[in-house]
C-alpha cells in the first residue's frame, strides 16, 4: 500500500456497486453530445486491474472521435471517452502481482478495446500501467501517459533521435510536442520547433535550440537542414507536411503523427527521389515505457505543463479548449470532484 493511501482510504475508493460515473459521447456531434452518466463497471478479466481514476488528460483524439473522425467508426454510442489516467489500484488480479490495492499508478487505455479513462473506475491491462512518478501530483500525472508515450514512440522508438542530429518538431507547444522537444533534447539532438511567439521562451527553457514563429516565418526559409522531422500537424495547416520535405537532409526521416493529416506523404517522398524515409505512427500503451518516463520525471529531465484543469461536469469546456488547437501542454479532467 502506498504511503499516502491507508486501508480506510482504500475502502472509500472501492466502487459502490456495479456502475461507474463516466464521461460519455452519446452520439456524433459538438460538445452537446457529452454527458456525465452511470455506465457499467468495465469487465476486469485475466491480468486486468481495477483502478480508481483521479485525473485524466483530454487529447485531440477524443475531440476528433466525438466529432465523427478519429476512432468514430470503431465505437458504439454511448462510449466512455479518455485514454490516459492517474489513480489508485483498488483491485489486483492476484496476491503477488507487482501492483496491489493502494498503489498509485498511471497508465493508458487503448480505445475501443478498453472502456475509456474518463470514469471513476477503469479496467486496465497489467502491461499498460506503471508506478506514478513521485514528483508529480495526480493532476499532473493524469495529463502525461498518452501524450508522452506518443512523443517517446516518435523520438525514441521510431525516430532513433541521438546526439549529432538536428530534429524539427512541429507544434512543440502542444501536449505531444512539449514532451517531444524535451526527449529529443535529452537524447542529445539539436532541437528546432515551431510555435506561436508567446511560447518561444518557454520552449527554449524545455531544451529547444531554435523556435520558429510559424505564423510570421516560413520555417523552410530560416532553419538549417534536419535529419528527422516529427510532424504533429500534417497538411491540414499551410502544407506543413509537404514543406517539411524541403528541410530534410537526403536520407532523412519524416514521421507524420496525426493519422490522415497528410494523405499524399508517400507519393511526395517517392517523387523527391532523395532516399527519404516516411512513416505514420501508432503508439502502443506500454507500461515499461511509462516506467522509464517516470524515472525521467523524478530525476528532473522531463516536466509536464498543465494548461487548465476542469471537473468532469465541465468536460465541454475542456473539449472546447483542446479544440481551439492552441493549448500549451495539457488539459486535464479532475475526477476527484
Ligand atoms: N497517431 C497517434 O497515435 C497520435 C497520438 C497522439 C496524438 N496524435 C495527434 O497528433 C497531433 C498533436 O497532438 P497534441 O496532443 O500535441 O495536440 P495539441 O496539444 O492540441 O496541440 C496544440 C498545439 O499545436 C500548436 N499548433 C497549432 N497549429 C500549429 C501550426 N500550424 N504549426 C505549429 N504549431 C501549431 C499550438 O501552438 P501555438 O499555440 O503556439 O500556436 C498548440 O500548442 C493531433 O492531431 C493528435 O490527434 C496522434
TrEMBL record:
GO molecular function: oxidoreductase activity
Coiled-coil stretches noted in the UniProt entry, renumbered to this chain: none
Species assigned in the record: Gulosibacter macacae
PANTHER family: ALCOHOL DEHYDROGENASE RELATED (PTHR11695), RETICULON-4-INTERACTING PROTEIN 1, MITOCHONDRIAL (PTHR11695:SF294)
Domain of life: Bacteria
Domain Enoyl reductase (ER): 29-333
Name of this chain's protein: NADP-dependent oxidoreductase
Listed Pfam families: ADH_N, ADH_zinc_N_2
